[in-house]
Please model this.
Amino acid sequence: MSKIIAFTGSNSETSINDKLLKYALNFFKKNEVNYIDLKAFEIPIYSETLENSKGIPKDIQELKLKIEKADTLIVAVNEHNGAMSAFFKNITDWLSRASSNYLKDKSIFLMSTSPGEGGAQSSLEYTTENFHKFGGQVVHQFSLPLFNKNFSEDGLTDTYKAHLQSLITNLENDL
Model:
């Protein structure tokens, strides 16, 4: 059984990307997924001065260790101005300072949603490039446009639900 961890790159308590991620985790049948709430971490804004004076924050060291032990990551990223949020960028900055290859040999399922028609595609592209720089391999992507139209208390509309289930089944079969 593969070790899988999942987290969302948003610090919003009402994150639609977190809702999508938690919904998606219900489709894993062959593997257990460990959800990590990054909002609970205490991580200062990165600066070289801070790194030199205090070192890598404890929560970053713990997250790096969890990533090292995992085979696969499931990551939901929100979009701010066409890129990942400042919150998540800060976490990836610290992780890259802890190890320039912190994603080495990691398979990554990347997903995003937005209230608009773009489904946070720009953030998916930005995050894919960012993760590749640090050794990660994005093996699947899922983008959900128009979150409020395509997601409800009952979950995704049929077309998107089938697509997400198919991607997760393919991921699990590849593990």
